[in-house]
Amino acid sequence: MAAKKNQNKKYIFVVGGVMSSVGKGVAAASIGKILQARGCRVANLKADMYVNVDAGTIRPAEHGEVFVGEDGIEADQDLGNYERFTDQLSTRENYITTGQVYQEVIRRERNLEYHGEDVEVYPDIPKEIIRRIEGCQKKNNSEITIIEYGGTVGEYQLFPFLEAARMMKSRNPADVFVVLVSYLPTPKLLGEQKSKPTQRAVNDLHSAGLNPDFVICRAERPATPDIKRTISNVCSLPVERIISAPDVYSIYDVPVNFEKEKLSDTLLGTMGLKPKTRNLKDWTALARKIKRMDKEVVIGVVGKYFNFKSVKDTYISVIESVNHAAWQLGRKPKILWLDSERYERDPKLVKELDKVHGIVVPGGFGGRGVEGIIRAIQYAREKKIPFFGLCYGMQLATIEFARHAAGLERANTTEIDAKTPHPVIDFMPEQRENVATKKYGGTMRLGAYPARLKPGTVAHGAYVSTYKLKPKASNLISERHRHRYEVNPKYIERLEKKGLVFSGISPDRRLMEIAELPRGKHPFFLGTQFHPEFKSRPLRPHPLFREFIKAALRSVRK
Ligand code: GLN
To answer: For residues 168 and 37, is the Cβ–Cβ distance under 8 A?
Structure first.
């Protein structure tokens, strides 16, 4: 009987209390990581409360990066945390929004699939949420499915989602668990941690018919024994289920800290599961190594208007990819955010690039700051500063090269200048219709596509050496995309004649996926039409980021 029960699939709901932005996503990813390290098959899923069908139409400067999954889902940035921590690939099953839920319920209603019944917010909306959570479990064949809810308890729009958790728990109390990630403020005047806001959050959960099974206490400092006791009383929980989660040096410390609190043991014990292994060694070693590094590599990220507070959320995968590569090469990364609009006002300012070891131009849209970025790319090309362009960064590098090395005056992308005499970057043919009819949502070229690498190039060398592949046979890669424009095939020959090398090309030879300058001409000048940043892992940096940082380190030594 007990053995059979243990085979049931387990669900852990991670919900926030008190306030947002305290690291709930990292906590959910870390729970996935520590359970995976004990030999469990896990899946992480994010449910966001907004009515948007996906994150593709949301401004990243306000809501963080749009993370692209293998199948092209444009999702919340937390899916990036999950991938970086558990190294499992995300697809649309790992991401739910209120918009998706309603869209499906309404579609079914229009198809008469409710057989004449009226369709209600309760219970039809929670039921659809449950169907999606169980769908994610099935797709991943996970023993433990970790569902992170965006927002905080007490919010109006979270209610159907909490109700879904309650319905699942009332059906299978031994298989469904709730982790409350809360915040303990320390008011300056008092100098001590306060648990009252957390108690209020617990009350909110109670009024949704749920009691937390675990409380993770985010705070500047470790939760005191007194506070742990108070919270354990309020929740009628053993004190070992109240977990201290103080601020850490890097997010990669979080799983290590959880294990100091014996969280995986307690979680598995509570769920009635037996651990199979304990395997967090490499991760723990990395978290320790990160803290010990002192020599820096300075990377300038050049782009439009960086002076907003969530810049780190907007470029999280790019930042982490730089981190992973720098750490592997034994350097502490320092990122400078360089606003390109200043180079438009005063072109001389671009000289500040002399003080960085390499520059990254990340993805983007629209015309703002673009001339300044092009100026920076020109400077990096001429002064031989390592340059790495990601998506828009690759397109702008192609424009820069076209204008200043291939003599194509006023070359541009039709995204900015529809009347340019040289549209070196232009719509992919299938995109014209989408834009003309305002079909913006989910219509870019999205997700993983293969590309063939040209032997002997910088890109080929990077992939082959990182993955220890046989040099000739193994030149097909797969990377994730999110763009509407591409290098215009009409200009390829002219650009190549002047020395630009297209070192990665789609298998049908239509799309240019990587552009670079040969090793002899530049220490590292490379751009990708795809987003390599989505596939970098802490213990397995992306080959191109690694080559870029290597080149940056060579420029440090100079
Ligand atoms: N705006 C460009 C395009 O749509 C680049 C997009 C990006 O950088 N993700 O093609």
So the answer is: no
Rounded to the nearest whole angstrom, what is the distance from the C-alpha of residue 483 to the centroid of ligand 1? 4
For the question of residue 542 being annotated catalytic, the response is no
Residue type, 132: R
CATH topology agreement for domains 10-287 and 294-557: yes
* Percent helix, percent strand, percent coil in the chain, to nearest 5: 45, 20, 35
Q: What is the pLDDT of residues 367-421, one digit of tens each?
A: 999 999 999 999 999 999 999 999 999 999 999 999 999 999 999 999 999 999 9
pLDDT digits (tens, 9 = 90+) for 49-65: 999 999 999 988 888 89
User: How many of the other CB atoms lie within 10 Å of CB of 42?
Assistant: 24
Q: What is the CATH number of domain 10-287?
A: 3.40.50.300
CATH code, residues 294-557: 3.40.50.880
H/E element, 387: strand 387-390
What are the residue ranges spanned by the domains of the chain?
A: 10-287, 294-557
Strands (E), 28-185: 42-48, 67-68, 74-75, 95-97, 144-152, 176-183
Q: 3-state class of 498 per DSSP?
A: coil
Reported pTM: 0.94
Active site residue 391: yes
Please give the distance, rounded to the nearest whole angstrom, from the Cα atom of residue 38 to the centre of ligand 1. 40
CA distance 307 to 409: 32
